[in-house]
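Structure in, sequence out. Go:
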């Protein structure tokens, strides 16, 4: 068995035993369809300021369901994916198992690469579950089978979530540099806020962490293909930086 195969098998076992990954994935899937389904209620009819605000997000058909779900998923996915990436990498330092990895014949860069592969595959599985749950709930609500335009919007959301999966590797890099998982979670939260600021300032198309969301929501009117390429490239560079950081890891003697 090759070194990468051994590393992948070990990381898959760790992920399967992880409550963090299960909870993060479940919250994303349930949260997206649950909150979107709640928007089918006639909240906008309430004579309150909150009712007027919620009216803008009212769901009454398949296109509006996907539009609202996209807004929720695009933001929540960076949090869910980032938390999982932080745990996959940071747990080795927090649990003290990093020392044992130095004794293994598999190189640390190979282990890091395996962690990133397992994380991205996990994100892809969660993405499929989110999209599938959306379609199932739309059918259950009586909106009928999605049309071509709606399928296009679902496809854009799927692509945005996969790019976000790559971008969430920033949590793996920060977890490696900080040797824990608290700092990367803080960075992810800061990036979510920065993405909102970038959109308000009109720079969302070229800010890697916001362009996938804009493209998912508005297509070419929200973000360009060049912006998506920048985002995907940034994600790949973050992955490469994480592998390089693991290659340079050194054991630090306890005081």
């Amino acid at each position: 068995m090759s070194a990468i195969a051994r590393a992948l098998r070990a990381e898959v076992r760790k992920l399967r035993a992880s409550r963090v990954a299960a909870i993060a994935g479940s919250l994303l899937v349930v949260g997206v369809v649950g909150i979107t389904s709640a928007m089918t209620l006639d909240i906008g009819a309430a004579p309150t300021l909150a009712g007027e605000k919620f009216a803008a997000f009212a769901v009454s058909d398949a296109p509006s369901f996907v539009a609202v779900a996209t807004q929720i998923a695009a933001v929540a996915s960076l949090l869910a994916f980032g938390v999982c990436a932080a745990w996959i990498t940071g747990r080795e330092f927090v649990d003290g198992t990093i020392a044992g990895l130095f004794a293994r014949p598999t190189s640390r860069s190979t282990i890091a690469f395996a962690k990133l592969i397992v994380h991205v595959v996990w994100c892809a599985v969660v993405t499929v579950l989110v999209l599938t749950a959306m379609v199932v709930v739309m059918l259950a609500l009586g909106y009928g089978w999605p049309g071509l335009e709606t399928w296009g919007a679902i496809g854009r959301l799927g692509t945005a979530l996969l790019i976000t999966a790559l971008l969430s590797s920033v949590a793996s890099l920060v977890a490696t540099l900080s040797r824990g998982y608290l700092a990367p979670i803080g960075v992810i939260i800061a990036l979510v806020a920065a993405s909102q600021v970038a959109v308000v300032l009109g720079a969302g198309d070229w800010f890697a962490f916001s362009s996938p969301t804009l493209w998912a929501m508005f297509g070419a009117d929200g973000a360009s293909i060049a912006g998506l390429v920048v985002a995907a490239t940034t994600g790949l560079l973050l992955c490469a930086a994480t592998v390089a950081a693991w290659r340079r890891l050194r054991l630090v003697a306890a005081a």
